[in-house]
Write a structure and sequence with these properties.
- The protein is an all-alpha fold and about 130 residues long.
- The protein folds into two domains: about 1-65; about 65-128.
- It has five helices and no strands.
- The radius of gyration is 18 Å and the shape is flat.
- It starts with a helix and ends with a helix.
- The mean pLDDT is about 90.
């Protein structure tokens, strides 16, 4: 029962943070991009970081709620995903020197998320 309650709290906390992130992101882009360069524009365009930090806080809290086995498995999957991400982005750096287009830093999180999820999925399939 505690596991269900923890999952419900996590989904609520992360969901609220992501909704706030989406709203702040849209407002930030709509009003921040047309602003004149300066500290005001920089702060407006950086505003989505605040709800993003709330999402990080929700994730960290969820790791604290997990039992030791699930936490270990999750952290191992994350570590493998981080290693895969490092290998992909490092390799792409060499491709950039060969003339490939520069990779945005926004792509790194997508690669990490996919790598982490794929690693966790493969581990679940292998351990069944």
């Amino acid at each position: 029962m505690l596991e269900r309650e923890a999952k419900k709290k996590y989904i609520t906390e992360l969901g609220v943070a992501m909704v706030l992130y989406a709203v702040v992101l849209v407002v930030s882009i709509k009003y921040g991009r047309p602003m004149e360069p300066g500290i005001g524009r920089t702060l407006a365009l950086m505003a989505p970081v605040i709800p993003l930090l709330l999402a990080v806080w929700a994730i960290v809290r969820q790791f604290g709620r997990m039992d030791e086995f699930v936490r270990l498995r999750s952290l191992e999957s994350f570590a493998a995903g981080a290693g895969i991400t490092a290998a992909i982005t490092f390799s792409y750096g060499f491709l950039e020197t060969a003339g490939y287009p520069r990779l945005s830093m926004f792509a790194v999180w997508g690669i990490l998320g996919l790598s982490w999820g794929a690693t966790a999925a493969v581990r679940c399939l292998v351990n069944k």
